[in-house]
Amino acid sequence: MRKYSKLLLLVAFLMSLTTSVATAQSMKLNQEQQKMLEPFPKAQAGMVRHVIFVPKKSDENNFKIEIIPGKVLNVDCNHHTLMGKLEEKDLQGWGYSYFEFTSNGQTRSTMMMCNKPNEDRFISAVTKLVRYNSKLPIVIYAPEGYTIKYNTWKVAKTETAPTL
C-alpha cells in the first residue's frame, strides 16, 4: 500500500511539472502574439477583435485562408446567407491591413416551404480568401455576437491554361 501512495505522489508531481512547463510555453507564445497585436487598434465599443494566428508552413504561397464571418441564428429549413460586408482596411504607417465586418443581422434565403421547426444554425456571410502569412496575424473586427471562422486551403496542383 505504501508503494502505491509513493508512486501516486510521484505521478502527481510529474503531472504538475508537465502542466507548469506547458503553461509557461503557452504564456511565452501568448506574449509573442500580444507583441504582434500591438500595432492594431483596440476594438471600438460594440465591436470585438478576432485574431487568427496560422502556423509556419514550408511554402506558404501554396496556402490561403478563407475568412468566414457569421452568426448563429434561429432559422427555418431554407438556405440562408447573412448580409454584411467584409472590408480590408490599411493600418496607417505599418503596411499591414486588417478587416472589418459590418452587418445589420439581416439574411437572404431561398423561399422553400418548410415542414420542420426552426433551428439554431451558423449562418455565414460572403467569405474572403486572403494570403497565408505565418509572420502576421489576421485581425478581423466584427460586431458583438458575431463569430469569425476560417478554413485553410492548400493548392492541390497548379494547372496551365491552354492558349486558344
Arrangement of strands in the largest sheet? 1-9-5-4
Q: H/E order of the elements? A: HEEEEEEEEEE
Outline type: globular
Give the class from helix and strand content and strand pairing. Answer: alpha+beta
User: Would you report the number of β strands?
Assistant: 10
Average pLDDT, all residues: 85
Spans of at least 5 consecutive residues with low confidence: 4-29
How large is the count of helical segments?
A: 1
- The percent of residues in helical segments reads 10-25%
What's the gist of this structure?
The chain is α+β, with helices and mostly antiparallel strands and 164 residues long. Helix content is 22%, strand content 38%.
Describe this structure in words.
With 164 residues, the chain is of the alpha+beta class. Helix content is 22%, strand content 38%. The protein has one helix and ten strands; from the N terminus they run H-E-E-E-E-E-E-E-E-E-E. The protein has one helix at residues 2-37; strands at residues 47-52, 63-75, 80-82, 85-91, 96-102, 107-109, 119-124, 128-131, 138-143, 147-154. The protein has a four-stranded mixed sheet, with no helix packed on it. Strands 2, 7, 8 and 10 form a four-stranded antiparallel sheet that branches. A hairpin with a 4-residue loop joins strand 4 and strand 5 (96-102). The longest helix is centred in the first third of the chain and has 36 residues, at 2-37. The protein is globular.
